[in-house]
C-alpha cells in the first residue's frame, strides 16, 4: 500500500511539473497534419501540429490554453509519440483512453507498463470531469491523423 501512495505522489509531481513547464510547445514546421481540440466543460483549448515522415511522427508540437491536467497531458503525449510509428501511436491512444475511462474499482490500470509515464493519468478516472481534460490532447491527435484530416474536435 505504501508503494502505491509513493507512486501516486510521483505521478502527481510529474503532472504538476508538465502542467507548469510543458514540453514541445509551439508549431511543428513544416507540418503535415494539424487539428484543434476544445473541451467546453473546462475551457481547455489545444492547437496540435505534427509532421509525419513516412509512417513515423517526426515532430509534434502544441499550443494550448487550459488547466494543468490538459497541459500536462498534451506535454506528456508529445513526448510519448514523437519518433514513433503512427500505428503504435494509435494503439497508445486506445490504451490511454482505456486507462482514463476504466472502472474506478479496477485495481490495476490496463497496460500500465506499455503506457510508461502516461500511467500517471490513471488517477483521473476517479474524477469524471477531469477525464476530458486528460484525453483532449489524445482525441486531437487522433483527429489530426485521420485520413480525411479533421480540423476541430470537441470532447462534447
Ligand atoms: Zn481542463
Give a description of the structure.
- It is a single chain.
- With 156 residues, the chain is of the alpha+beta class.
- It has one domain (3-154): Sufe protein. Chain: A.
- The chain contains 5 helices and 4 strands, in the order αβββααααβ.
- The protein has helices at 2-20, 68-81, 86-101, 112-115, 128-145, and strands at 33-39, 44-53, 56-65, 152-154.
- The chain has a 4-stranded mixed β-sheet with strand order 3-2-1-4, covered by helices on one side.
- Bound molecules: zinc ion.
- Total discrete domains: 1
Main β-sheet, in a few words? 4 strands, mixed
Kindly estimate the percentage of residues that lie in beta strands according to DSSP.
15-25%
Radius of gyration: 15 Å
Task: Identify every distinct bound molecule in the structure, by name, code or SMILES.
Answer: zinc ion
| Class per helix and strand makeup | alpha+beta
CATH architectural category: Alpha-Beta Complex
Question: In angstroms, what separates the terminal alpha carbons?
Answer: 36 Å
The name of the CATH topology is: Sufe protein. Chain: A
CATH class descriptor name: Alpha Beta
Amino acid at each position: 500500500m505504501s508503494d502505491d501512495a509513493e507512486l501516486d505522489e510521483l505521478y502527481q509531481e510529474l503532472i504538476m511539473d508538465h502542467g507548469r513547464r510543458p514540453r514541445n510547445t509551439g508549431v511543428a514546421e513544416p507540418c503535415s497534419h494539424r487539428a484543434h481540440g476544445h473541451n467546453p466543460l473546462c475551457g481547455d483549448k489545444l492547437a496540435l501540429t505534427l509532421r509525419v515522415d513516412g509512417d513515423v511522427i517526426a515532430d509534434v508540437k502544441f499550443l494550448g490554453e487550459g488547466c494543468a491536467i490538459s497541459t500536462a497531458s498534451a506535454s506528456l503525449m508529445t513526448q510519448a509519440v514523437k519518433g514513433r510509428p503512427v500505428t503504435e501511436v494509435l494503439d497508445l491512444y486506445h490504451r490511454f483512453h482505456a486507462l482514463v475511462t476504466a472502472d474506478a474499482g479496477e485495481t490495476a490500470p490496463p497496460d500500465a507498463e506499455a503506457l510508461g509515464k502516461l500511467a500517471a493519468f490513471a488517477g483521473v478516472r476517479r474524477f469524471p470531469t477531469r477525464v476530458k481534460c486528460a484525453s483532449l490532447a489524445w482525441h486531437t491527435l487522433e483527429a489530426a491523423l485521420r485520413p480525411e484530416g479533421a480540423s476541430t474536435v470537441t470532447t462534447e
